[in-house]
Amino acid sequence: MYIVHSTFKVPEEKAQEVISIYENRSKLVDQAKGFKRFLLLQNNTKKGELTVQLEWDSREEYLNWVRSEEFKQIHELEKKYPDQELAAIIPQVQQFKVVAE
Signal peptide span per the entry (predicted)? Predict the structure, then answer.
């Protein structure tokens, strides 16, 4: 299994707005080959710190997703979000290979 974290910080007063966006996400990734699960995580002590966790069968299937037209579509929509402060956020991405369960 392969896990990708995209962590970003938003002003705490905008955290719920961002959570709502993800609650209503397009779910295009859900149909990608090898996709297992999406989670949005909120830091317990820093409410404005959010992490998108994507779980995949393999690194190769994740990379296929990143190269796909659907991935590009989603990220183009993000750039057009009305709140430019949120649209300009660049997440810190970490990738993990699961080595034990």
Answer: none
Mean pLDDT score, 30-46: 97
| The total number of structural domains that make up the chain | 1
Q: Domain span at residue 27?
A: 2-97
Q: How many other CB atoms sit within 10 Å of the CB of residue 35?
A: 17
How much is the average pLDDT of 53-65? 98
Strands (E), 27-91: 35-42, 49-56
CA distance 42 to 80: 24
Six token digits for residue 73: 């579509």
DSSP 21: H
Alpha carbon separation from 50 to 6, 22, 27, 33, 84 (Å, rounded): 8, 11, 18, 25, 18
CATH classification at residue 42: 3.30.70.100
Cα–Cα distance for residue pair 94/15, rounded to 1 Å: 21
Cα 74 from Cα 31, distance rounded (Å): 13
